[in-house]
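Report of the visiting student (M.T.), summer placement. My assignment was to run the structure pipeline on a short list of targets and document each run. The first record concerns Leucyl aminopeptidase family protein.
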Amino acid sequence: MPPRFAEPDAATLTLHVIEADGLSGWLEGQGAPTRAWVEASGFKAGLGQALMLPGEGGKPSGALAGYGTAAARARVRFPLAGAIPSLAPGSYRLAGLPEGAAPTEALGWLLSSYRFDRYRANGPQEQHLVAPEGVDAARLEVLTASECLTRDLVNTTAADMGPEALEQAVRALASEFDATIEVTKGAALESGFPMIHAVGRAAEQAPRLIDLRWGNEGPRLTLVGKGVCFDTGGLNLKPGSSMGLMKKDMGGAANTIGLARAIMALGLKVRLRLLIPAVENSVAGNSFRPGDILTSRKGLTVEINNTDAEGRLVLADALALGDEEAPDLMISMATLTGAARVAVGPDLAPFYTDAEDFNAALTAASGPQADPVWRMPFHEPYEAMIEPGIADLDNAPSGGFGGSITAALFLRRFTGQAARYAHFDIYSWQPTAAPGRAKGGLMQGPRAILAALPEVLDL
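After the run finished, the structure tokens were exported:
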């Protein structure tokens, strides 16, 4: 079950959240025993510190959580969550949070409860939070459940999360929210989506295009997620050091599935479409080859200069399909390039768009949603880099410069009818554990997107 807020009861403890420069003032209002206890414990209200306060009969009467300085909090996505492991089991209500901080800290508390226990038993978090006054508890629980789904999908090994399992995950979502689903594979995929078929045809599990629809009123919103369930690199085989995390190469699909779930659970008045090209990029006698020229669904020809640049190929066919309906907003998400990680690191979600209203709304929502994004340029002079001469497009321009930008420019060639298009080149992985963010699969961008949708689509 996804983490939820606790119901208050007689055993609920007050957790006093105290900034470093506010500790002396708080102590002045306490009795001598409490002051002596805090001073003897060495509690300085540093970020991540926690201290249980003694009560009658050896039971705690409350607790303190250090909130540090503004400079320290600026370096942490969910500052309060760092104190949770040091608290005794039980339920807590917050007191003393700065104005406006409750939604972010409550979300961070819920997300800190995430456990991936498919392969190993992990005990549940025993510190529970009563929803702070004034927060939209139901919305925060939806966001948490959607992110937990995304994390589970990314964390699951490719042996258990191939194209068939990814399809089943979307089918479960369709069943939960009364959506429709259509899956294209076999001869129909080869003729209608030739690049998806070419990338996935060497794998044991057949490639497929998953197409979910939900909602019958409002603007059209189309989400396209890269579903490469494992990426060997194909005949341009990756070295072992680069292949170790390739179970997460379907992180774009996982993020769009999580975003779609949140949209449906919140009942947004949109006509939602979710497109996921699900493949494995494997090595066999029928693998697609360097030098091959593929004809895409849109009719554009693509020269294959590197079979390890396969994500843009499967996305291109799916984008071409989505674009045919001229949606009001189309968003692609993919763990597409290492160049994006070199540019902005693992913590930021870089995105590309020509839609200024979407950029403004997304950027404004990013901070309050604790979901950092960063706009990157569709740099027009680089268009020439993706035009090889022998075909319309090159899937892997030589030289390596601007790799994330050239990939985004490649994808944009398969749009044009959509009123707005945005592409997210995400990492979808937390390299080391941080407050509210366990090591492993991560949602990047959907919370900011979700908050931006009402303004952009006039919902």
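The chain has two domains: 13-132, 141-457. The CA atoms of residues 263 and 450 lie 7 Å apart. I thank the supervising group for their guidance throughout the placement.
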